[in-house]
Fold these 2 entries.
Entry 1:
Amino acid sequence: MQWKSNFERQSEEEEIKAHGLTLDFDEIARRGAMSKEEKLIGKWYGVYASRHPGQHMARVVIPGGVISTTQARNIAGVAERHGQGRLNLTTRQAIQFHWLKVGALPDLFRELAEDGNTTFHGCGDVVRAVTACPMAESCPYKRLNVRPWAIRTQKALNDSRDLDNLPRKFKITFSGCPAACAQPYMNCVGHIAVQRGSECGFKVVIGGGMGWEAYVAQELFSFVPEARIIQVTRAIALLYRDHGDRFNRQKSRLKFVVARLGIEACRQKILAYLQQEGADTAGLSWTPFEESGRPFPDRPLALDSTVGTDGRGIVRVMIHQGELDHRPFRALAELADIYGDQKLYTTNRQNIEIHGLEPAKIPEVEHAVHTLGFETDGFYTLRDMVACVGTTYCPKAVATTRDLHALLQAVVRKPEFAAIQKQAIINITGCPNSCSPYRIADLGFRGMRIREETGSVEGFECTLGGDQQKHGQKLGEFKTPDIPEVVHHVLTTFIHLRTPAETLTRTVNRVGIAPFQKAVFS
Amino acid sequence: MNYPYCKATNPTEYSVVEGLGETAKDQKTLAKDIPCQAACPAKTDVPGYIEQIARGDLDAAYRINQECNVFPGVLGRICTRPCEDACRHHWTNTNGPVQICHLKRSSADHLSRPPTALPGWFPKTGKRIAVIGGGPAGLTAARELIRYGHAVTLFERRTTLGGMMLDGIPRFRLPLPTIKAEIALIVSSGIDVRTGECIDAARLTELEADYDAVVVATGTTLPRPLELDRPTASPPLPAGSIIPGLDFMKAYNDGQVTGLKGDVVVIGGGFTAVDCARSCARAAKRLLGDGGEVSIMYRRTEHHMAAELEELEEIRLENIQVRTLVTPLGLVTENGALSGVRFIRNKVQETASTGKPAILPIEGSEFVQPCHTLIVAIGQEQDRSLLPAGLTAGEGQKTNRPKIFFAGEFLTGSSDVIHAVAQGKAVASEIDRVLMGVERKKNHVTIEQMRHMGDGETGRQRAHDLQSPAPMPLTDIPGRARDNAEVEQGFTKEGIPVAATRCYLCHYKYSIDNDLCIHCDWCIEVAPRACIKKVSRLCTDADGFIQDYVETDVSAKATFIHIDSDACIRCGKCLRVCPVGAITMRKASLTPCLANPS
């Protein structure tokens, strides 16, 4: 390869980006392979190399986590034609194809576009898909419906060509209430709908993130009027564009900017950006206030089929390990067409929801879903585990997360743990990038290799007692075959120590990690 | 707390994470990691000063050299550069080693402030030491002994200090002002200099009685004799027909050789032979090619000549003939004057051994090389006439008399300035240890965590390695003939950065803590070349020094992820990408530690 010798203090990626962010995929398809530079810029088109040589991943952007059934059928068709029929749901409500040849990419883009789907800005140093609560419209605790804001914010920022070249990725999420189901505290920008007196708006937190160095987002504004939220988000993106580290990509993300500059300085800069853009900053507040919305439980989404505040039913579909075939995906779309609102909703726990059902039809739809081979209960419980794709597809992964997923299913489904199903969730991630945010789960696993006398074997670091605002503590490092036993000890200890309504995280926070360590290591 | 898994011990290349490494392992790792410094007889901190040059602080670079090798300006011109042979660029790179020597000279050429004498290490001890010989070894010993707190008297037979630097090396390679400035710097530290004082055996015995210690560093001053047949019963040849190489150099440097007539033959293949030939060419104004020939006649091949390839090229440009594989047999005279030298051709007999190949004469291949002046430069030997009867060399630099020490070429035989400097430093340390009863100054391996360079940044990129270095600017041929001008002009300020940024900065050490490493291999992916390896086994010697490893490409067989310092370019990308903070950047250096310093 050619080594450039201008010796500027910037990453190689920045140097490549400076030469342009556009690719001719027909040309690439004719050539049959992507150069190193094209592989980087390919991310702007949502294309990523897969772990399997010659295979690529493409990520369909799903703003707000909702697609029409037409779009769903389109995605299923593309998967069938180009991606060995397989679909993967991500923890940011997107859908991925993992078995793509370079030659298929241009046709794939064109075919997706026929029904308004796109992979553009699915990856790369851009504003990524904006996520939202899956039950944004009908959750009993919602302060306001955040889904339209998520979709509009996504459109506004993705259409801004001055935000095409950020230092790294930029992730935004909208949560309908302070229960924070949309994970605002671990996104670059988290918008949390709040109620101040009779007025609803957003609390804005920034600088959260998982990855190899995790940060909890800090409060930027305690209250932003609903109508200002897109402008405020854009101002945050501008701050990031101008202050993110362009030399060290590992320290580029907004969380490092906030940690480096401090939240106060960030706020001043953001206010200045708002002024520069001619935006009205009048309603913005950063003084704390008593939130006056309806009290909410720890995990509002820890329920199965339900009827929302709009009087319409919801059936949830648990997707095993987040991967499904195009045929059942089409069948789910058909169910939504026949019984629901002709939309499919994706969740950040890699599941799918069908909304807008006649409450009376719920059992019928559930039965249909069961026939397809999916469960419709157990959400936000021990068995609703989230595993990233791990070494099954991801070139970055260190461990086979799906193997652990399968091993642990057998443990958590034991009758002795029936009573605590809703008291803990498990996230498994294959590498420190934490695509499955292991630090915020009651039980978290992060892939690693553990060395032996000679050689090394797969294992996981286990963390205990995490939530979005207080990350889990390290329990230890274990080889994969030992982990079922470890989890068994942890859950048994939890049963002994818990108070009736307590989650595992609350118990760990109350009694500390020591009793669990003792149980595991003695 | 962990499951009690059986794990291979976490390997470490230095015995400490930070602080002083005092084990043999530390010394060995340092020597492996910084091969230039290990190769330097005076253990010059090469990456240390090149890093300063790359940052633009030439004064600091000069000070490092002044501390390590005493004569930066001199050695920057005429050092035999064992460091460059050891340079890691030399292993793989087609662009040759880092121009360490030229860079040293640059630091002396472009000083912003005149250098000052180095401070002492210890208060006055009241001990008095005599150093005999004002050459590089004697001067170095004197400077170091002063810094130990001893009083030093330096005796020199000639009227000026400098020894071989002054007499043995032509001014067009080493100008007089450079030598004088650096000697003055040493003398200014408080040495009592006695020039014009010739020490004989009787005087040496007196000194032995008067002083606490005596260093004999009088070098090699006697020419090694060459036995040549001469026509029987011929009258003696006119004076000046056959000249020993060193005598010729001395005369040339003193301006006593102005014109040479006819053909000159220089016998020998060492530095002196080449210097003599180049000086002859100038003395005879043969640079431009008029009249007779200057020839170097050497019995082995060019490969075994001391001169570097670059210098051989210059020799040819200066119209000097180089004939190799020839052995002189006898002299040919005509009318009582020298007219030629009879040579026989040799052939090389390759052997399986790695030493110098054997040379076999080819029968019947004799020929006569026209010659009117013969310079014999086949080496020098020690003049031992100043030693009192019964005085013999002992262990190391000691002798069989407790107060007398040998140093420099007088001890080692014909060598070069950098070895003489190393000898001077060593004898000073040895004398101090003997006089004071303890080792008051010791070199330790210091390991420093480079936390202030938090992102592991040295500023280096792979492209720095692959730069084409600038050649040393040279005086053109007519210019060399005119006024005996210095041939190498030194880098301009603009030429320095390319040369300096090529240096791998081997004193920085990136290593992986395998207790933290999770084998994600991300560092291997971003590595600019095959510098980070999956390793199933590390091979250590009895001291725990990691001397080799068994590489694997199978994750299950990878016990460790290992950064191979031999291939590391010190870009720090691995440190920045490591998701678990397992990679640290440290700096390893050889630093003096003083016991009870002043």
Note: The CA atoms of residues 438 and 444 of chain A lie 4 Å apart.
Entry 2:
Amino acid sequence: MDEWKHLEELEEVNEYDDEALDSQKKRLLLVSGILFCFVALILFRFWSLQIHKGAEYSKRADTNRVRVREVVAPRGNILDRKGRELVTNRPSFNVVLVREDSNDIDELLRKLSRIVDEDISVFWKRIREAEKRPRHIPVRLKEDVDWKTLAYLENHNQELPGIRIEVLPARVYHFGDMASHTIGYLGEISRRELEKQDTSVYRGGDLVGKMGLESLREADLRGEKGLSFSEVNARGFEQQLLKSIEPLPGNEIHLTIDSDLQRVAEEVMMSADKSGAVVAMEVKTGRLLALVSTPPLHLEDFVGGISHAKWQDLLDNPRHPFVHKAVQGSYPPASTYKLITALAGLAKGVIDENTVIYCPGYYVFGNRRYRCWKHSGHGAVSLQRALSESCDVYFYQVGQRVGVDTLADYARKFGLGEPTGVELEHEKSGLVPTKKWKKERDGVRWQDGETLSVAIGQSYNQTTPLQICQLTAMLANGGKRYLPQLIEQVVNPDGEVIGQFKPVLVDELNEDPRYLQLIRQGMVEVIQGKQGTGRIVRIEGLTMGGKTGTAQVVRVAQYKDMKEEDIPYQFRDHAWFTAYAPAEDPEIAVTVLVEHGLHGSSGAGPVAKAVMQQYFGERLPPIIPVAERKK
Amino acid sequence: MFRVDRRFLTSFDWGLLLLLLLVSGMALFNLYSASYPPKPWGMPPYVRQAYFFLGGGLGILCLISFDYKELHSWNYPIFVLMALSLVAVLFFGDSAGGSQRWINLGFFRLQPSEPAKLVLVVALASYYGRKEAPDGYTLQELLPPVGLTLVPCALIMLQPDLGTALMFVIIFVSMTVFARPRIFTYLTLGAMGSGAGVLAWFFLLKDYQKRRIETLLNPGHDPNGAGYQIEQSKIAIGSGGKLGKGYLEGTQGHLHFLPERHTDFAFAVWAEEWGFFGTVFFIGVYFLMLFWGLHVAMTARDRFGVFLAFGVVMLIFWQAVINLLMILGLLPVVGIPLPLVSYGGSSLLTTLLALGILMNVRMRRFQGERTLD
């Protein structure tokens, strides 16, 4: 106990009696205050980061760890009017490079170059293009590798760090190159397109339609990309999938095209190596049942990007495979134009069904002799014969009587000189010459002699095959101009029809039906008449109306007397044939143009005939072999 | 020794021990998360750290078993031993990251600069404790402490480890200011110190060290470069928000965005997972322990005890403040650990021994000098 007392005394001595220690105690209190200020500063900073700016930093933490990736949507299928699949998707395997996973890109590319047989400079070019994108975003090096390469890459992935396989939907063309110009192809989005487009929809490397309906119906076909959110660590390795939004496939597009008809038309054209166009249209609706341009594009070449060599070949090809000749090709309408001249003559009263004009094989106007194609002459011709035998002299005179501007008025009533409005790009409007037009273009007065040439469809006249088909349909249906259309219906992924074909009446001819009737009679004679220029197309059991045409390409004296086969290809005449059927109640109009096909009847006629046969197929009487018929 | 057995229990600083156990428990708990998921090989850091806690606990028991006054006589031999180990590390030390800091002892790599801090505290406390100066210290009287500081400081600069070397200066300044030099001494030392600082910037600092200081002034400038660590640490802390992401749920830490997450930036892991409230609690307990230490200094028996306790508190306090300001983006990344919280045996053992000295001072506050003779 004594000890305790002693200690208490000591404590007093230590704590209170020593002045030096006392002053130090005061200093310690002061120090505590200073130190407390530091603690307060630290706590304030924690408050500022965690409470005041907490939400902002939360977001930044999420940006750090959550990687959002786009999942490409399967593109909408393209079907024909009977529901047959023309274009669908298949998985394609692309070789991609994730730069952040590779430490020796140069060596890697050298290896890959040997495996996929591609020049290393191609890889470097693509890597440079993607330089600004984050390093975890894959750069596509080679598209659509085959199974063998794929298997090799999968087996050797340990030796190729950073090389991955990306699976993307690619187009499959079930009917080969059928309707290739109308369907179009896909390609990687270009920088310029990317700048134009909504940035939320497209990214570099996306595939977009580059031509035809793939391009025009891009918005329908592309669908909506899906998103996958995954958690990544600081090195960019994915840890887990957090959430994913499935992509929404594109809408399905059903064409008005009938693949049977289209195929027949293409086969007939191609089997005879004809380049040109075929148009088949429903006369009472404007539905396009076939729209052919040959030579076709080889669509498979465009899957995964077309090679430069193949691209250059296409550009250099003298038959212009890139041109959709049915809408982008413009040709003098030649004798098919006589249908317009006839209507103009009838409507203006310069001729009637009884008017007879004598054709000696030429017509003298001014101090020039305008020849009929039949040098021996047709003799006395009425409108019927003039049409069925395509007498030039008759129409020279009709044209001369009504004048070029009246001809142009009637041509325009049929829609010539303007695009039909079909849903295809770069449609040509053709050309309908007038006096004013020539004055404005050349500054020269119209020569009356030129009217004669215009009246038979030569001279400045230019039309597209689609325009001639529309003209034929108008004559057949009594003068209604329907918009040519390609889309039967658009169906969304849920199966709902979101767009349905409806005929669109653009314009109507207000002409006496009797005149049209007269012209149709003439057209029927073209095919059914004994001397008809189109009798070669005649189909037993089917009455058709039609018109042939032979469009001069050049008027070169040196070829005039040559045999047709000896004239160089590029100087041969274009062949037209346009027809409708059945004559009693027309359903379909078919127009064929064969570039440098020489004669309307022999060059283009058989194609039209094949299409008609296919269309009417079962409705035609069975073909009885000749041997049996003799019995 | 057995004579004071009963008082051993009554005068022992149970409050300080309780605070220490609380902080240590939270620190180990946090270290588990900061090194999660465990690597497939080797001993996980939290287990190693737990062993060091036990070792440090034994060290504390040894330290409190004798009167701290004894340290007066051991002071200089220990100081020489410390200086020799700092020399040795320059010749035989293991290096990492371009600096040679560790002596490999087989079972653990000792970083001599850590205990050296405590040795300096004891040496300075011993000097100031013995040498009273009622009118303030003269420049001449301050020469020995300056020398005691510059020896380890220079040796550590040679490693080089600028952050730790700076700690010695800070300890010296804190204790010397507390010891109260004369105004003239202040001015002279201040002028010399700032002169040395300017020279250091141009001749001593390595480029990467300058860059760290520069990025601190402009941190958003280059998020993937030198400012990356600070930015990621701020994101970790800030994204913790009010209540935190939950234990083991911190994304910045576990996805490796946070650098040095179990060493220098360990507390950012705590802040991310426990939020502002958890942070306030931890900081509260942590600094309560240090203010408790200041109270120990206030109630110390003699001048040596006061300086000893004060030096120990300064040693821990400034490391903690520098580390926290660093992870908060207010100071450059200098590699100062948060005592008790950051993984690292040398730092932990040193801190525990320092706290042991604090307990020793506290325990013997009632004992007259004569009682133990």
Note: The radius of gyration of chain A is 39 Å.
